[in-house]
Amino acid sequence: MTALHPDALDVSASPVLEADSLDAGYGGQPIVRDFSLTVRAGEVTALLGPNGAGKTTLLRTLAGALPKIAGTINYQGAPAPTALHRMARRGVAYVAEEKSVFMDLTALENLRISRGTPERALAIFPELTDHLHRKAGLLSGGQQQILTLARAVSSRPALLLADELSLGLAPQIVHRLLTAVRRAADDGLAVVLVEQHARRALEISDYAIVLQRGAVALRGSRGEVIDRFDEVERSYLAISDTDDGENS
């Protein structure tokens, strides 16, 4: 592993999320090994790596959707709940790679069944206003993803775990989503972001961890990783031949 030294990160604040010596995988077989992470309020940490590196497996484990194999996960200073719904009750918003809107409900109904309020969601994404009474299934893919993120951040979570927000979306939608994530972090949200657009993810992140074949290949502050981005892209972000049963 190549280690870089974080710059401009506030190490005095208490961590919102900590993982130490974490092994994550399926059926007791690790895909990600010996992973460590610290995320504080106001920080965005990007998880980068090629397909098959273990990013989605790791995020599912941090969210409580997948049981850890070894190591520890602490949330707000205590052992993290071991189920997704318990993490949600404790203020964790998990946006999975799969679409998570209710297609037969209107956009407004989707917002109303979240832990937030439509007013808060529309303050973050006013472009949803003209689509409130349309069924979510009739929205474009980008609009559905905006609705998904609006539901997540309008609940004012302490932690957002987001998996491939931009998958298959137009560049302007990607920019809109990532900008909203950065603004939410500036308001105090802690974020762990899995993102295929590595450079764009780095632009809104404070810290980055690059996974390769289930191990941490490199970690560092945004500036340090951007300064070495050509090397990072060439050495660590190429297509992986590791088959771990996931796309990311």
Provide an overview of this structure.
The protein has helices at residues 55-63, 84-89, 107-112, 118-124, 141-154, 171-186, 198-204, 222-227, 229-236, and strands at 2-3, 15-26, 29-40, 44-48, 70-75, 78-79, 92-95, 159-163, 190-194, 207-212, 215-221. The chain is of the alpha/beta class and 248 residues long. The chain has a 7-stranded mixed β-sheet, with helices on both faces. Strands 3-2-5-6 form a 4-stranded antiparallel β-sheet, with helices on one face. The chain is globular, with a radius of gyration of 17 Å. The model is unreliable at 1-11 and 240-245 (pLDDT under 50).
Number of helices: 9
- The stretches of 5 or more residues where confidence is low (pLDDT under 50) are 1-11, 240-245
> Could you tell me how far the N terminus lies from the C terminus, measured between alpha carbons in angstroms?
20 Å
Q: What value does the Rg take, in angstroms? A: 17 Å
List the helices and strands and how they pair.
Layout: E1 2-3, E2 15-26, E3 29-40, E4 44-48, H1 55-63, E5 70-75, E6 78-79, H2 84-89, E7 92-95, H3 107-112, H4 118-124, H5 141-154, E8 159-163, H6 171-186, E9 190-194, H7 198-204, E10 207-212, E11 215-221, H8 222-227, H9 229-236
Parallel strand pairs: 1-11, 4-9, 4-10, 7-8, 8-9
Antiparallel strand pairs: 2-3, 2-5, 5-6, 10-11
Helix pairs in contact: 4-5, 5-6
